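thought: user wants a sequence for this fold. calling inverse folding tool.
action: design(structure=
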């Protein structure tokens, strides 16, 4: 658990420290993107971390994507990973489809609200909010996990 918390804080601090020029163009070389993708995949599989909080910084810092494009790309990667994971686990588990439907309904409402807020933010502000959110989550989760 501590490794995950440190990873969150590290990803957030990297995003706060690096600057994103307004005219930034994608500059991902195939070998570099493959290596970063493999690294994110290993961390996801081994530590159970990943998702947007690792994919978005990886795409911004290594591929040169702007925050909005990295967010959308991250969602596509997560959707494909989730679909593959779900298909692989369906034979081992039973899902509560009613709970899943209710959760999905409210998640979609949240997504639509988030899209509305995101359209009103510029990329620089969005990047800082994302980085600060990662750091706050690391602090909160780290605080909840402290044992006397």
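)
observation: tool returned 148 residues.
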């Amino acid at each position: 658990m501590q490794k995950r918390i440190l990873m969150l804080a590290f990803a957030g601090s990297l995003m706060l420290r690096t600057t994103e020029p307004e005219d930034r163009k994608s500059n991902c070389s195939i070998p570099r993107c493959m290596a970063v993708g493999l690294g994110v995949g290993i961390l996801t599989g081994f530590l159970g971390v990943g998702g947007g909080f690792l994919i978005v910084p990886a795409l911004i810092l290594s591929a040169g994507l702007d925050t909005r494009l990295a967010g959308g790309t991250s969602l596509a990667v997560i959707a494909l990973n989730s679909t593959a994971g779900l298909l692989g686990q369906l034979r081992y588990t039973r899902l509560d489809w009613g709970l899943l439907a209710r959760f999905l309904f409210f998640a979609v409402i949240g997504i639509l609200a988030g899209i509305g807020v995101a359209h009103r933010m510029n990329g620089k502000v969005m990047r800082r909010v994302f980085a600060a959110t990662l750091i706050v989550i690391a602090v909160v989760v780290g605080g909840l996990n402290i044992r006397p």
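thought: summarizing for user.
answer: Here is the designed sequence. The chain has one domain: 2-144.
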